[in-house]
Specification:
Strand order of the largest sheet: 3-2-1-4-5-6
Number of strands: 14
CATH superfamily of the largest domain: NAD(P)-binding Rossmann-like Domain
Mean pLDDT: 96
Pathway: Nucleotide-sugar biosynthesis; UDP-alpha-D-glucuronate biosynthesis; UDP-alpha-D-glucuronate from UDP-alpha-D-glucose: step 1/1
Bound molecules: uridine-5'-diphosphate-xylopyranose
Largest sheet: 6 strands, parallel
InterPro entries: 6-PGluconate_DH-like_C_sf, NAD(P)-bd_dom_sf, UDP-Glc/GDP-Man, UDP-Glc/GDP-Man_DH_C, UDP-Glc/GDP-Man_DH_C_sf, UDP-Glc/GDP-Man_DH_dimer, UDP-Glc/GDP-Man_DH_N, UDPglc_DH_bac
Keywords: NAD, Oxidoreductase
Catalytic activity: UDP-alpha-D-glucose + 2 NAD(+) + H2O = UDP-alpha-D-glucuronate + 2 NADH + 3 H(+)
CATH topology of the largest domain: Rossmann fold
Number of helices: 19
EC number: 1.1.1.22
Strand content: 5-15%
């Protein structure tokens, strides 16, 4: 097996930019390639179009050391890199639910044509099962004569907000290959993690592709599972957080991803689940993943429930009423508002005529692109001043530590919906707040 020194990363979005910087951190010479010249220019300066802790610093460090650079020219890497990672997007197709494979297919074809040196192409994008086998054929049909090019599949499990950490110290590494040599190339790439005994799962293409979507589907299922029980405790009483703690102590279940609330969102879970359902339907297996329809429905019902609670608290009339929405990113430590439950709640209330005041530590600039008519305040104080209702929709630290004293003299009426179950009910009720949570039964006549 040849020694790996030079690595290219095709596609410099969230996944690609992170992967390129981390490969440089692991000691490789790295070139990130993207078709967007503006992106390339700003990346070289360490300016990212998204918020990811630690990543701008890592990029600047390695651009400065000369170990990392960015280009729009694939020919630049075709004669140079030993390993090419494909990290382009697989968005939801417009007007459909499947994954749009245009970018992966185009990147693979153009890259393969540019390759003039024996090398390995490694797919990292999240793709419908069967893609790697199809691309492997495409590579053989497209490659230049006399050059050895093969394909491996190596899915990525990074979380937003922890992208660098998840890439450098992953929970496990999964590689789908058809030749032992290709696996050995990837063992070199990930030698540092392997040295720490990171589990190494060597498998075929299909398994590698499916591990990714199965992990996402399982996580979504865990969240919707506890949210389904939240619907029950909302009706009969009981404490959803205690329930999650109690079942979570069973090590077979585990406590993580059992936080009931307004549900999951983001650029991955919702889209990947829909793409999985679409793919299995194409395979004639729609029945196998039908439970995911239910998971999706439970998830969407939670947003509607948060809005319904707001209507209940405001006597079914929200028109012109000032409502403070705290948190519109899909989760804390991110500026991402894609498929965000909090933003959805804010938009629904706005569309119903409420005077919605949104405060979010990071996400307002992105939310304003989508809903420019909603008011985004630069501080929490401004959002809550004069509010008749406060809704906590994303559990940022500064909201988790809120106390009634912070808000008492600012709001017009003491009403709060904790849609992430992070506040202590007793603290707020003692301070004469009408306090509601998703998953909590309301005392008779309290609303
Ligand atoms: C997810 C996967 O975790 C990651 O492995 C994959 O590579 C990409 O998709 P990410 O989109 O960054 O990562 O978000 P994640 O941290 O998984 O959270 C997803 C959503 O679930 C968020 O909206 C979060 O608020 C919600 N969530 C999470 C809950 O509602 N309850 C929980 O207990 C956990």
């Amino acid at each position: 097996t040849a020694t790996v020194e030079n690595v290219s990363v095709i596609g410099t979005g969230y996944l690609g930019a992170t992967h390129a910087a981390c490969m440089a951190e692991l000691g490789f010479n790295v070139v990130g390639v993207d078709i967007d010249p503006e992106k390339i220019a700003s990346l070289s300066a360490g300016d990212l179009p998204f918020h990811e802790p630690g990543l701008p610093e890592l990029i600047r460090k390695h651009v400065q050391s000369g170990q990392l650079r960015f280009t729009t020219d694939l020919n630049d890497v075709g004669a140079w890199a030993d390993v090419h990672f494909i990290a382009v997007g697989t968005p939801q197709v417009k007007g459909g639910t499947g994954a749009d494979m245009t970018y992966v297919d185009a990147a693979t074809t153009t890259l393969t044509q540019a390759i003039t040196k024996d090398s390995l192409i490694v797919g990292k994008s999240t793709v419908p099962v069967g893609t790697a086998a199809r691309l492997a054929d495409l590579v053989q049909d497209t490659k230049n004569p006399g050059v050895n090019v093969s394909l491996a599949w190596n899915p990525e499990f990074l979380r937003e907000g922890f992208a660098v950490e998840d890439t450098i110290t992953p929970d496990r590494l999964v590689v789908g290959t058809t030749h032992e040599d290709d696996e050995n190339v990837l063992r070199q790439v990930y030698a540092e993690a392997l040295g720490r005994d990171t589990p190494w799962i060597s498998t075929d293409y299909q398994t590698a592709e499916l591990v990714k979507v199965a992990a996402n589907a399982f996580l979504a299922t865990k969240i919707s599972f506890i949210n389904a029980f939240a619907e029950v405790t909302e009706t009969v009483g009981g404490d959803i957080t205690t329930l999650a703690d109690a079942i979570g102590h069973d090590t077979r279940i585990g406590r993580k991803f059992l936080n009931a609330g307004v549900g999951f969102g983001g650029g991955c879970l919702p889209k990947d689940i829909r793409a999985l359902q679409t793919r299995v339907a194409e395979l004639g297996l729609d029945h196998s993943m039908r439970f995911l329809d239910e998971m999706d429905q439970i998830n969407l019902r939670r947003r509607k429930k948060a809005v319904a609670l707001a209507f209940d608290l405001l006597s079914q009339d929200v028109i012109g009423k000032k409502i403070a929405v705290l948190g519109i990113t899909f989760k804390p430590l991110s500026d991402d508002v894609r498929d965000s439950p909090g933003l959805d709640v804010a938009a629904r209330l706005f569309n119903a005529g409420a005077d919605v005041q949104v405060y979010d530590p990071q996400g307002s600039h992105n939310a304003a692109k989508r809903y420019p008519r909603i008011t985004y305040t630069p501080t929490l104080d401004e959002a809550v001043t004069g509010a008749e209702l406060v809704i906590l929709t994303t559990e940022w630290d500064e909201f988790k530590t809120l106390t009634p004293e912070n808000l008492n003299n600012k709001v017009t009426t003491r009403r709060i919906i904790d849609a992430r179950n992070v506040l202590n009910p007793t603290t707020w009720e003692t301070a004469n707040w009408t306090f509601t949570q998703l998953g909590r039964k309301q005392p008779e006549g309290s609303i």
